[in-house]
From TrEMBL:
One of its GO terms (biological process) is lipid metabolic process. Signal peptide: none annotated. Residues 3-92 form the Fatty acid desaturase domain. This is Fatty acid desaturase domain-containing protein. InterPro entries: FA_desaturase_dom, Fatty_acid_desaturase. Pfam families: FA_desaturase. One of its GO terms (molecular function) is oxidoreductase activity.
Amino acid sequence: FLMWCAFVVGHDAGHGTFSNSAVLNAVAGHLCHAPLMVPYWPWAFSHNLHHRFHNHKSKDHSFPWFTENEWAAMGTFKRGVLSNYLAPFYMYPVYLLIEGFDGCHFWPW
């Protein structure tokens, strides 16, 4: 629960809505993201790209969309990984370290 609370404050700081001060937003963002092991600036960069292109089929890289044909053409393993409710527990290191749909959160560009 505390990790979620830290993320929410860091998320708001990343949008510049935690405070009217850009410096205070940056400090709060770094302090809240550090215990989550998510680098603040790269996360804010990729997250703001996600909001810029929210639900756009080809530009929203945070939540990939697949047509029915694309989904059917995927291998069983990949479909299982993408639709597994336990994925957040074992995919966290992948989310942080390996370039995925929205880039690596250490180097998202």
